[in-house]
Amino acid sequence: MNNPLLSNDLLPRFEHVRTEHMETAIDQILSDNRMQIQQLATQEQPTWDTLVQPMQSLDDRLNNAWSVISHLNGVMNNDELREVYKRCLAKLTEYGTELSQNSTLCDAYKKVSEDDAFSSLSEAQQKAIHNTLRDFHLGGVDLPEGQKRQYADLSRELSELTSRFSDNVLDATQHWFKHITDAEELKGLPESALDGARQAAEQRDLEGYVITLDFPSFHPVMTYCDNAALRREVYEAFVTRASDVGPDGGTWDNTPVMAEILKRRHQMAQLLGFENYAERSLATKMARSPAEVMAFLEELAQKSRPMAEQEFADLKAFAKEHSGVGTLEAWDIGYYSEKMSQDRYDISPETLRPWFPVNRVVDGLFAVTERLFDLNIEQVEDAETWHRDVKAYRISRSGEAIAYFYLDLFARKGKRGGAWMADCRVRWRNLRGTLQLPVAFLTCNFTPPVGDKPALLTHDEVTTLFHEFGHGLHHMLTKVEVADVSGINGVAWDAVELPSQFLENWCWNPESLNLIARHYETGEPLPQDLLDKLLAAKNFQAGMQMVRQLEFSIFDFRLHSEFKPVSPVNPLDMHREVRSEIAVTETPEFNRFPNAFSHIFAGGYAAGYYSYKWAEVLAADAFSLFEEHGIFDPETGRSFLENILERGGSQEPMELFKAFRGREPAVDALLRQCGIVTQAA
Predict the structure, then answer these.
(1) CATH number for 483
(2) Per the count of CB atoms within 10 A, which of 287, 402, 469, 604 is most buried?
(3) Active site includes 185?
(4) Are 180 and 131 in a shared domain?
(5) In whole angstroms, what separates CA 279 from the centre of its chain?
(6) Distance between CA atoms of residues 100 and 678, nearest Å
(7) Interval 605-640: pLDDT, tens
(8) Domain that holds residue 593
């Protein structure tokens, strides 16, 4: 069988990839790798060329196959693929543990690091070896045999549990829907949401309208629907996903899954000599201790909570004055916030949609990045993709290709919710001197086009696209040629959000918005009065938004740092406790937020959700230099490219930041950007 996952294609042959190719490819690669590692690890005098480079080659071949399988599982999920994915994941977890506990291989890397020739290696090569030795330790290489086996079992179980958590959330999200035949029930919904609801009904061979829990469907109901009973029903279905209560209560309940995940993370951390999993998490991050993280979060909370309290008091007063609402329920907050924003600024996300047709926004995004970093971006017409909506692109400079990426922008059945960037290929140079260019997957879940009308984005969605593209640039514009520290590889997790949050700033500047926003029918730019209103409304409820993100961050960090095996805390109880201390809004008793908090239970953000805020400080401070010199200043753009984007994980992020900014980051720029300046004084 000619297996496309075993071929050496830079752009995978997606149209040729079948489910039956997947496990076969993984089995083949793992078998080949195990044989070669045995030989590599037992060398008398290993060097970079005889040990590290061949190991990178083995890792790269595996990554190139697995990146495709993993991606398809996220964007084209079905029962058959899911089962194959799980089996492959179990094999990869076992292999990863086996590798990280291979003491002979670890000793070989130590020999390279202790050799006189080490000092003549490049900074990136040295960093890659230091990281590998650290990861050996974090993988349990120093443990006695019995504990190694225990650690391996825990890794395997944890991998299965996080995958189950993710599947439960996806199944619960996609199972529930509300069929509505009376348009009156949907009064207040904008035309774009009604079009989407009609399309969702047609796809199910139903008359009328269908509301789902996918964000493009759920969010308009919570924001615009006049029918409070429907808002409550949709809200309850959403916040009880994968839990013991709600319309599907008990069917995909993640409560026991979370308990088992937390228990195993704690056990793994303790085996490695850490007090708790939060300490283990910080071993690969910028933040130096749990105390530093908590102090950082509490400082932000202290400075932003007064503003959040005032904003919520204003909202309650507005709802009472305009609608006679005495008690503001959780499903009312988005609705009355939108009414208040319209009243105060005379603008709504829906008002702006016509100026953000998806193709124009994508072209504008490319124009901004081309100008900032001296690039050229063009579509690759003949590239194979996994769905007709997906497009592939080439990034070049001075006529020479430097990277490729795929854009998959619209929500659909079988596609995991949210937005993300993942690597498809990593930039590195092999022993033969061949350079592999980086390739990225960029995935969003926007409302798809309906009929002849193009997909029209909200400004929030525009910001999401810029955010993910920032991650993509970090991966694609690297100049590092050592795979382990190329692009986002080897970058401390709490610094990885810097480029993504940094690029969001260009969604708010009149000069860059002129490149992004054009009316889908007339081609007219965003009128000055709408632009003024958009900018005026930028920090509407910024305090409430800040406090909400801090609530998630503190909940996550305390959950992992305060875990006690003898009396393990229930995540729901911990969430309620954190909310009582920091939140300014009330949530109903049936809210089960933790049960669908995939970032920390199925993603890479366990004891690391604070990273968003940590990196936000870096991003705001980095952007303040552009504010000083001009948002398209060539010199500042070049400096950000050379000091941050091109360097990948080859140096510590704080050193890279200082090289760009001339000093360590300060929180003031973020507080100023959010309009919390008075509280920061």
Answers:
(1) 3.40.390.10
(2) 469
(3) no
(4) no
(5) 22
(6) 50
(7) 999 999 999 999 999 999 999 999 999 999 999 999
(8) 284-347+541-605
